[in-house]
Design a protein that fits this description.
Layout (H helix, E strand, L loop, with lengths): L4 H9 L1 E12 L3 E4 L6 E7 L1 E6 L3 E6 L3 E4 L5 E4 L7 E3 L1 H6 L6 E4 L7 E10 L4 H5 L6 E3 L4 H14 L5 H19 L9 H6 L1 H12 L7 H7 L4 H12 L3 H20 L3 H7 L5 H12 L3 H6 L2
Parallel strand pairs: 1-9, 2-8
Antiparallel strand pairs: 1-10, 2-7, 3-6, 3-10, 4-5, 4-7, 6-11
Helix pairs in contact: 1-5, 4-5, 8-9, 11-12
Length: 301
């Protein structure tokens, strides 16, 4: 069965705990959010506004636009004619789990802009490494499915029906995959999307994800990608942001953590699953990469 690296990365990130709110604005308004750090999203349902993200520039958002911030930095959002931004503590705002709509600007009148914003969490201990493979800002325009998915997230988050947490987890997984596969990979910064948009590198990615236990070499992966060793190494490093063997090691260690955390396997079994010939060799590599022995890591969970 063919392996989908994008789906694997999303699954390993373990997105969960979705929360969302309707946000509206009228007249001249502005709001400045402090750095949040957790992944967040926003779908514009009506009107237009401006979004200035720290280190990323300013975007004009219009109805139907979708924004995903995998590790939300500080940002400023304003009406098209901006007002003086009011400072908001992002963590304090996230702690408010009431279902009330957030209104910016003039109250008591029909809003000029309405959006659905939300955030979730990544449960993976390797979230930082995996998030680094994703664009810092994902801006999707013209998708019909993303606003529908966001509405489903909103509806499910407000209800207390049986299976709510599982439904929300599956919905946010679908939301992430849909957003990432809709984005133009060729123009993406170094990371997973850019690599998967390159047909030759995508072949190597599928091999590494499909059989992480195999003793892959740069030469083998280059040959499978129909590239010379040096061309493959340079192309992979530019596209992903790290050399191929470094990526393979990071992926193996992320898989090992999941196996230790969820499966309760013996160290030797985990070693075999991620490409090590002995438990001792694996333990040495894991300790060097993670900072503690796999046995200690498993006991700490």
């Amino acid at each position: 069965m063919a392996v989908d690296p994008l789906a694997e990365v999303i699954s390993l990130l373990q997105p969960s705990a979705v929360f969302s709110k309707v946000i509206s604005g009228a007249g001249r308004w502005g709001v400045r959010y402090t750095r949040f750090g957790l992944p967040s999203f926003c779908a514009l349902l009506q009107g237009s506004c401006r979004l200035s993200i720290d280190g990323q520039g300013t975007l004009t958002l219009t109805e139907g636009d979708f924004i995903l911030l995998p590790a939300t930095p500080g940002f400023t959002m304003t009406s098209l004619e901006p007002g003086t931004p009011a400072l908001v503590d992002a963590r304090a705002a996230a702690a408010d789990v009431s279902g009330t709509e957030i209104r910016h600007g003039t109250r008591g009148v029909r809003p000029d802009v309405r959006m659905l914003g939300g955030y979730f969490q990544f449960g993976s201990p390797d979230a930082a490494m995996l998030v680094a493979l994703l664009p810092a800002v994902l801006h999707v325009r013209g998708s019909e499915r993303l606003p529908q998915l966001v509405r489903l997230v909103r509806e499910e988050s407000l209800e207390r029906r049986p299976g709510r947490e599982l439904v929300l987890t599956r919905l946010v997984e679908i939301l992430l995959i849909e957003a990432l596969r809709t984005a133009p990979g060729e123009q993406a910064p170094a990371g997973l999307l850019r690599a998967m948009a390159d047909k030759r590198l995508a072949a190597a990615f599928r091999l590494m994800h499909g059989d992480p236990a195999r003793a892959w070499t740069v030469e083998q992966l280059a040959r499978k990608s129909a590239l010379s060793r040096s061309a493959f190494f340079d192309r992979f490093t530019r596209a992903v942001g790290m050399p191929p063997m470094e990526y393979l090691l990071s992926w193996r260690m992320a898989l090992a953590k999941r196996l230790l955390r969820r499966e309760g396997l013996a160290i030797g079994q985990v070693a075999e699953r991620v490409g090590y010939g002995s438990a001792s060799t694996f333990s040495t590599a894991f300790s060097r990469h993670v900072g503690q022995a796999p046995s200690r890591y498993a006991r700490s969970l």
